[in-house]
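Case study.
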Amino acid sequence: MPADLLTHVLRQADRTLVLSHRLAEWLTHAPELEEDMALANISLDLLGQARHLYTYAGKLAGHGHDEDHFAYERDATDFRNPLIVEQPNGDFAVTMARQVLHDHAAFLYWESMCSSTDETLAALAARAVNETRFHLRHSTGWMIRLGDGTDESHRRAQAGLDTMWPFAEELLGADDEDDLRTAGLIGPRFDGAWRAAVGATVAEATLTMPPEPPTRSGGLRGEHSEHLAPMLKVMQGLARAHPGATW
Amino acid sequence: MVSELDRLVRAVDDPELPHVTIGDLGMVRSVEVDGNAAHVRLTPTYTGCPATEQIRSDVESAVLAAGYEPSVEFVMSPPWSTDDITDQGRAKLTAAGIAPPGAAADGPVALDLPVACPHCNSRRTRLTSAFGATACKALHMCEACRQPFESFKAI
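After joint prediction, the assembly is written out as follows.
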């Protein structure tokens, strides 16, 4: 069954929220103070994008639910994020490898959404593409420093890339969204541009592209890895313990 | 009275930037009065800016104090850019020790001219982190006067 616009918006909202939470887990654990701030800033940008997307999803669904409903009152099987963003952070190089794969895709996605026929998504895209530009510079900068650094940082950067690469495919979009593309609601696929961009970063970082194509998928359909539910338990704990609480 | 209300709304301070108003930052898109009701359209700087709710509340207070019933709406289009910051806003940022932004980047790779130090005006500065204490600011170091400083990111 082809996906509707609500499904697409929830996939993007869940992608940004889950990754925002994973990056927030780095707070006070990053290798230097500037990185604590950088990862918190990027996390906050993603959270902002998620809030706008959830608010719009509530409008599309027509049931009057707000952003808190989507973030706090759904179970793991309701989430539609790509698997890569729910994977554990690993060490800093693993996280940066995920960010490189993600940020290249996110930049191309928002760039393509600037000309969406949906005014709400096009307006958000115009803002988000500029935020993502900074995220991309941050993650690619680190990947190059780590890969083209010491033997140890090179080894870890390659291990990070090898860890995250199997999950990369879902970042390029779902195969049930062609109708939305035809209608101009979402932009054309960007697989080639993404492969070229990731390949250029990996080459400059003196790393090696994993030889096998990515194989893991399911998150966009609600079939998640074992890592999402425990993450949601932490993220939703307060809201579920005190339903409807405000402060 | 519309222009007076417009002035009052634009004079609301940004909660995270001392001495800089939301008018200086170019966040106020429109102020419309219909009878006793005033409708204010604002555009957020960053999608995740945590000051958004505080700004909404401060604008509502300003409109109420002027005797109107406020409704504040955040609109995403046209998107906010640092190019919207007024000349007065740029001067206030510099005076507060925050280097104002250059022209916004439009490609994936920005041409990063060194930012001028707001303390000594030297261009011998370097970026220490693109992410500062708030989403809109970056951290720099001045090689001339050896002072660390913040800049408003061009976006």
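Observations recorded in class. Chain A has ten helices and no strands. Chain A has a mean pLDDT of 96. We will return to this complex in the next lecture.
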